[in-house]
Design a protein that fits this description.
Largest sheet: 5 strands, mixed, barrel
Order of helices and strands: HEEEEHHEEHEHHEHHHE
Helix content: 40-55%
Number of helices: 9
Radius of gyration: 21 Å
Number of domains: 2
Shape: globular
Distance between the termini: 27 Å
Strand content: 5-15%
Number of strands: 9
Structural class: alpha+beta
């Protein structure tokens, strides 16, 4: 009986630290009076900031996606192609290279706009959730409120410099993540109607075909039909793996990788089955490639 009571006491002693770790991934912390730190690698939705206490963090905005400014590997190339198809600008230039250059230019405009509006002190809300696009450096997801009180993600979408796409969560003012997602989509619709930013170059006649082509490729990837894709060589931790690492899993593209990240933290691998689009068959396929680290 004494042994049993000792075990129970030990479990209760450990429980607060476990709950604390889980809460850190869920509760947003407010960091006021932040400043923007120029960096060569920054873009419109991912950039370096410094807090009032002097800590530096690389921020990745929730819910929005700006065009790539650099293509360093196959994943970047695929992402830029998907972005161009989304906006219907794959044939906006005189050649494929001209269209790509135009897309990158819009990415640079978003980068410049972010730097401009963050020239004054701003506020971020973050739970320090890992937002690594690749495994080379640490990023955290965050909401950014400008000195004028505007959500930076909404601002970029309103100007037509970003699309409503990515990882979502409950907002600092308590709105459900689906409400925030729909608001961004509404702003995107208005921006497209006004032909703001990237939408000014959209070929509306070819837009449906471009998006359908992307959906077809995404569906083929989901079925594991992409011949060049190889599974990861190491087992991935569901709670810490980067987006690009998750995209190396069979049948997981960028959309599914974002959904997996959005569903964190996971307590067991079986929790992966709660992610939209992952049924029993896909879960069984993924089981041998993923794990949950020790709490």
């Amino acid at each position: 009986m004494k042994v049993f009571l000792f075990i129970i006491s030990a479990l209760f002693a450990v429980a607060p630290s476990i709950l604390g770790a889980q809460q850190r991934t869920r509760v947003l912390e407010k960091l006021a009076s932040c400043s923007f730190v120029p960096a060569e690698w920054a873009d419109g939705d991912s950039f370096l900031i410094k807090t009032a206490s002097g800590d530096q963090h690389t921020i990745r905005l929730y819910g929005v996606d700006c065009l790539e400014t650099e293509v360093r590997d196959a994943n970047d190339a695929q992402r830029l192609r998907a972005q161009m198809r989304y906006f219907g600008i794959s044939e906006a230039g005189d050649s494929s290279q001209a269209s790509i250059s135009l897309a990158k230019d819009f990415g640079k405009l978003a980068e410049a706009e972010t730097a401009r509006v963050l020239a004054q002190p701003f506020t971020i809300h973050t739970s320090f959730a890992d937002a690594r696009g690749d495994a080379n450096f640490k990023r955290i997801y965050a909401f950014v409120t400008t000195a004028d009180g505007e959500d930076l993600g909404e601002h970029l979408v309103r100007l037509g410099l970003a699309r409503a796409f990515g990882v979502y969560r409950e907002t600092p003012d308590g709105q459900h993540f689906e409400v925030y997602k729909e608001r961004l989509r509404d702003l995107e619709l208005v921006a497209s109607r006004k032909e703001s930013g990237i939408w000014a170059k959209t070929d509306w006649n070819s837009l449906p075909a471009e998006r359908q082509l992307q959906r077809t490729e995404d569906a083929e990837l989901s079925l594991g039909m992409e011949p060049k894709k190889t599974p990861p060589t190491a087992v991935l931790d569901l709670n810490t793996a980067s987006r690009d690492e998750l995209m190396s899993l069979p049948g997981v593209g960028e959309v599914m990788a974002n959904r997996i990240i959005q569903g964190r933290p996971y307590v067991t691998v079986d929790d992966l089955g709660k992610v939209e689009g992952i049924g029993p068959k896909k879960l069984a396929l993924l089981m041998k490639y993923v794990r949950i680290s020790d709490q």
